[in-house]
Amino acid sequence: MPATSTKKKKTTKIELDTAKFGKIEIDKKSIFNFVIPIIGFNDLKKYTIIDYKSDSPFKWLQSVEDMELAFPVTLCSFFGIDYQFDIPDEEAEKIGIESADDVLVFNIANIPSSNPQGATINMLAPIVVNLQNKKAMQIILKNTNFEVRYKLFERENQE
Predict the structure, then answer these.
(1) What is residue 96's predicted lDDT score, i.e. its pLDDT?
(2) Third-level CATH fold of 15-151
């Protein structure tokens, strides 16, 4: 007769009761630790990505420490935007980047509820995540022409 184990499996799931999405379950491994907090949110360092609508180019950067806080985020590539920049060595060291393959870069979006076509993204201060160690930070790019409010959609000709 084979031996059986009565050990319980270690759970890696946690439940969040968010203001925007209600109760959701996430994997602890999906939590990013911001070694330098997002500007204006100095006390919040743990976030996860919520894929609320899988067919949407927008995801949500949900704070794991403040259930009221979730930022809409996106990847420039979803919109065909050529977005390249160098991560300064000092910042790369802070989050342990060793290879470009380890990096996920996304941008915080501003989507006006009254005019979603007026959506903008912050290209001057991207969120950079090291996918290997889950460390992240918001980087302020210097000596660049990237905009804080880059328009995602062209305005229709108005007459």
Answers:
(1) 96
(2) BH3618-like (2.30.290)
